[in-house]
Structures are given as structure tokens and as C-alpha cells.
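Kindly inspect the following:
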Amino acid sequence: MGYGKLLTAVGPKRTLNLTTLISAGTILICWLLYRAGLVWVTPVLFLVKEFYVVLLIEQYWSYMNSQLSKDAAKRLNGPITGFAGLGSVAGGWLVAQLAVPLGTDVLIPLAAVALLPSAWLANKTYTRFGEPLPEALSSAESEAASRFEATDSLGWQTIRQSKQLSALLAVVLSTQIIAAVLDFKFQGLLSSAFVGRPDEETAFQGQFWFYLNSAAVTFQFVLTPMLLSFVALRWVHLLMPLVQVGAIAWALMSPSVMSVGAAFFLFKMFDYSLFRGAKELIYLPLSFNARYRAKEFIDVFGYRTGKGGSSLVILALQKLGLQMMNYYLLIALGFALLWLLLVVPLTSERESPSETL
């Protein structure tokens, strides 16, 4: 809501600058409190970490969705995601190199400092290529739109008025539940398979994520642009849940580290590459309010709610004595089938900007 009100007050360019600086300042304040001995700030810092990155990245995508043509987005969304992934690789490498000589807590302010060139580059981009503005409306329409904005800081009303955005929110929630339960099942099977052999389990995990990230990068730079350019968007969106349903069904029939790992591997590979590129294409023809308000609600709040909410529900069921390990794959299959059904409204005829305030 704070983001939405800020967007109304100062526009997208200044909102991005302010949220970037606020994020950097919050990280620095948490670090200083930790250095002063207030260890309770650690979980606060963790929650800030989970939130601020997504909020800033989604604003970058809101801008790109406002500036890129449909054809350009089909070619570039995959590589853009790939270059973003290289940033996480560089971050991991820096942590590996600097954690011992500098100390873990000294790395925290580096995250804040890294946001400053990001803010500068974003500001230069806005200055050079222009700032997206709400669609030109008649005086009566403009007054109605202003009243609508004042009551829709979250973007929730915009989502409710659009069957595509409603379907997209449902897809995001479903996919995050799938990710959570597949991860829980995979980690549980690994713990059983490597009892008393923690180093071997660590080696297996390292190898698994190496192959996963390598496959995702290949998808981002090669296969995602090809699929988005030469295959209809509806078929691209159908492909992902269809593959997931097949992989989860195999895991259900023959549960093992290999089968569950394959389902989790495929989900993450698609999520890091094709799903991001295909999802952003949904926003392209929609209104400013959809690209800058509804999108942040779906891709910030929706992602974190799907991930955290499902974990809380599972924790509560476990406290009640339910053996959740027996149900993870069934839950994943149910939500994969729901994802498949949601593709129809998700890829239906797009609304024009005038149809969604």
C-alpha cells in the first residue's frame, strides 16, 4: 500500500529511486543495530532481504513491460533474466571470496552499497528513454481514474476487474505452493538417503544446483527466446504445467530422490527462465495501473504469500500430527492441474489499456 501511494504521489521514476534508497538505508540501519549487539534484528534483516529484492526487480520489469514492443520482449525477456542470474552468480562468488577475510556481518553493508549504482543506472535510463505515464483520458475519465487510484493503492481492484490478472495471481500462488511442497519432499528424501553422510549430501546438493543453474542459463539465453518467438503464448503457458503434471505423476508412481528431484529440477528450470519471460508478456498490452500496481501486488505479495503461506499451513498440519511427507506429491499434482486449467483465462483475449484503469 505504501508503494502504491508513493507511485501516485511522485510517479514511477521517483518511486524506484526512493524505494531503492529506503531499502539501502534499512539494510544499513539493521546492520548498525546488529553491530551494536541487538541480535534480535537478525530476523528483521532476513525479512527485509526477502522483500526488497523482489520489490525493486518488479519495478525494473514494470518499466521494461512499458517500453518494449511485443516482438522485442519475446526476444529479450529470456536473456534479460539470464543476465540477472549472472548477478546472483557473482554475488555468490563474492561471498565465497570475502566471507572469511572480512567476516560475514561486514558483507551486509555491501548489499546496501550495491544498490547505489543500481539507482543511478535506473535513473539514467528513465531520463534517457522517458517515464511511462497513465494513459491519456478525457477530463471525466481522468477524474474517475484519479478516484479509482486513490482507492486502489494495492492494485487489488485492477486485478479483480481483469480475468487475466486474476488468473495470473492464482497461477503465481499455485506455482509457489508446488515449489514449496516439492522442495520439502526432495529434502526429506535426501535426508533419508544420506543418513550419517552429511558431506556426501552436501556434494550431491552442490552438483544438483550446478546442473540446475546451468540448464536454466541455457534456457534463458537460447530456448526461451526461441519458444517465445516461434510458439504461440498459450502453448508456451500450457507446456510448463503439462511437463510438471507428467513429472509429478512419475514421482507419485515411483517416489525416489531421482524422480522427485527431476520434478523439482524441471519446475525450478522453468521458473527461472521460461515462466518469467512468458509471464511478463501478459502485462505488455495492459494499462499503466496493471503494469505498475497490480504487477507489484501479484509478483511481490503473491509470490511471498504462496511461499510463506503454504509453509505455515504445512507447519500447522504437522503440529496436528499429520504426516505431510505422504501428501506433498499429491498436493503438488493438484496445484499443477489447477495451473493447467488457469492457462485458458490467463491467455484469453487481452484487455486494451482503456478496459483496465
About this structure: Residues 2-130+137-141 form one domain.
